[in-house]
Amino acid sequence: MKQVTSALDEQTRDIIKSTVPVLQEHGNKITARFYQLMFKNHPELKNIFNQTNQRKGDQSHALANTVYAAAAHIDRLEDILPHVMPIAHKHRSLNIKPEHYPIVGKHLLLGMKDVLGEAATPEVIEAWEKAYNEIANVFISVEKGMYQKVEENTGGWVDFRNFKVTKKVVESDVITSFYLEPADGNPFPNHESGQYLTIKADIEGEPFTHLRQYTISCAPGEGFYRISVKREDATDNSPAGIVSNYLHEHVKEGSILPISAPSGDFVLDLEDTRPLVLLSGGVGLTPMMSMLETVIKEQPNREVFFIHAARNEKVHAMKERVQEIVKEHNQVTSFTVYSEAEETVQCDKTGYVDYEWLSSILPTNDAAFYFCGPEGFMDAINRNLIQYGVVASDSHFEFFGPAKELTA
């Protein structure tokens, strides 16, 4: 991580640190109010921000955590770089630019004033204005480097580029894969295993553009990008997924999809030669498939344990592909866990991935662990790995959507 030099004076830093308890208590209210005000004054930004995450409150919570982290580490802003990097990757994929930051800063301060009332003294607001500018400069600097890097890649591009759907494959009752190649026929850059694309969807009848991230589920160098999308049906707690249903129902072979260049820092470390443990739940399978298909090509002697949990066989995507890989590559061992398995359906475990079972199938905790899936699955895996004695630096994970804190 590079050194970040703060220009904030000691008095400003002291004021910011004094607001940490307030942010812990009121952070979610402040960020929720911030989004309300910003979208009221700049409705065009609804074309960038995921409105489903807004309604669920996930985006407000993620922003509150970032603001809190910045306040707590205001003396050493370089310490927030682990928080900055995933967000900066997301910003680059959404084409967030420096001119967006003053709009965010203005409305964040307005949100503070509205929620904190008299506690938001002129001194506090002035200090936070200075601090926000410092924090924004960190993001702008990091993102500038990302934009430059993607443009320097062979076939790289900034903004959105049209790709054609060359193949559409139903993988399970809820997951379908889309194979994408450049509509212009020109070169395009390889991704790193675990990265995602941002799809730009202009859907008839929708007032705003929808941007969604989907992990590339194939290895680099295949001549295409593949995304494997779960159709999000309506439930009692949430509406149907606008973009996932659009892709499943309306996008066909030959359709054109604008996408941004691959992004994300949840990527497979190919310099590590220790055993690799890939754990996925549901559609969290997608980055693991990319990593699996990559490691058998790039590290043919590296031991791999591929563990996938699904509700049942009907929603288990790419099962045949994994079985094919296991048959052809002795380095790979796979396990399947179904929470609702029928007696006639074969799987390695019925129920959930728990510590006792996980520790019984793995030979060592001195390995690289990557996991992805629904929030409950990730919390459980995180606790299992901690109990198994896996050190934090060997545990790698990514959330679909705004980042959250895993429970230990």
Automatic annotation (TrEMBL):
Its cofactor is heme b; FAD. Transmembrane segments: none annotated. The record marks 90, 398 as: Influences the redox potential of the prosthetic heme and FAD groups. Residues 155-408 are annotated as: Reductase. Binds 1 heme b (iron(II)-protoporphyrin IX) group per subunit. Binds 1 FAD per subunit. Gene3D superfamilies: Globins, Nucleotide-binding domain of ferredoxin-NADP reductase (FNR) module, Translation factors. GO terms for molecular function: FAD binding; heme binding; metal ion binding; nitric oxide dioxygenase NAD(P)H activity; oxygen binding; oxygen carrier activity. InterPro entries: FAD-bd_FR_type (IPR017927), FNR_nucleotide-bd (IPR039261), Globin (IPR000971), Globin-like_sf (IPR009050), Globin/Proto (IPR012292), Hmp (IPR023950), OxRdtase_FAD/NAD-bd (IPR001433), Riboflavin_synthase-like_b-brl (IPR017938). Keywords: Detoxification, FAD, Flavoprotein, Heme, Iron, Metal-binding, NAD, NADP, Oxidoreductase, Oxygen transport, Transport. Its EC number is 1.14.12.17. Residues 158-269 form the FAD-binding FR-type domain. FAD binds at residues 196, 399-402. One of its GO terms (biological process) is nitric oxide catabolic process. It is an enzyme of class 1 (oxidoreductase). The active site is at 101 (charge relay system), 143 (charge relay system). It catalyses: 2 nitric oxide + NADPH + 2 O2 = 2 nitrate + NADP(+) + H(+); 2 nitric oxide + NADH + 2 O2 = 2 nitrate + NAD(+) + H(+). Heme b binds at residue 91. The record marks 35 as: Involved in heme-bound ligand stabilization and O-O bond activation. NADP(+) binds at residues 282-287. Residues 7-144 form the Globin domain. In the C-terminal section; belongs to the flavoprotein pyridine nucleotide cytochrome reductase family. PANTHER family: FLAVOHEMOPROTEIN (PTHR43396:SF3). Is involved in NO detoxification in an aerobic process, termed nitric oxide dioxygenase (NOD) reaction that utilizes O(2) and NAD(P)H to convert NO to nitrate, which protects the bacterium from various noxious nitrogen compounds. Therefore, plays a central role in the inducible response to nitrosative stress. Consists of two distinct domains; an N-terminal heme-containing oxygen-binding domain and a C-terminal reductase domain with binding sites for FAD and NAD(P)H. This is Flavohemoprotein. It comes from Cerasibacillus terrae. The gene is hmpA.
